[in-house]
Amino acid sequence: MPAVTVGDLAIFYRETGSGEPVLLLQGLGVDHRGWGLQVAALSPWFRCITPDNRDVGRSGRAAGPYTVADMAGDAAGLLDALGVAQAHVVGISLGGAVAQELALSRPERVRSLALIATYCSGDPRGTALFTGWRLMRERLSPEEYYRATYPWVFTVGDYLKPGFIEGMVERAATDPYLQEPEAWARQMAAATSFHSEDRLGRIAAPTLLLFGEADLLTPLRFARVMRERIPNAELVVIPEAGHGLIWSHAEVVNAALLGFLLRQRERQGG
Q: What is the Cα–Cα distance from 137 to 111, expressed in whole angstroms?
């Protein structure tokens, strides 16, 4: 897998497909492979660029604290290195916060914006939850950690699918590039300090909001605020889906995402 240097960090990435570029940004603790089901659906039509965020996967580890704005700078630096002047940008959870920051700070780089299961501000409840998860990351085995936290990520319906949760736990717990607890803690601190709520009206890119109806981590209250404040934002709510919707409800997510991106390509003359 190739890498580029942005500032003092190596940012690893993968490119799949051809056509207009789509930059896909993952969430807390997840590397580019988390987009596998979406890349398979999008790459026949688009050039999918899937990086490992700083402190994740095969990208470099930060020397100290950082912010979501720093992570957006990494994304812009990757686009610079690849010669991409403008891209459709897709982000989930923390990656959705990074995508918002990129659209706000570098609007000329964002052709369209798709925000999946994300948020527009940290809050005391979320910070308390993730602080507890940080302690679990430090004290539990990987398998114990994922078994303890996945009930927040997946729904009752997901747990009723034969083998689904076991497969997710096994893949995560045996990941050869599993994020170190200290790197997870730095990313978590960046995530919980993010705030865009009072800036959302400045987002100029056409925006899709894609949320799960039963998401416990980024509930629909965030979607409602973002739909109200982002000009002409389109909201799609997937019934019975939780925070892990890109895996548990991949077909529905992929259809909504591909439809949105193809409409933007047609409207903008791509």
A: 37
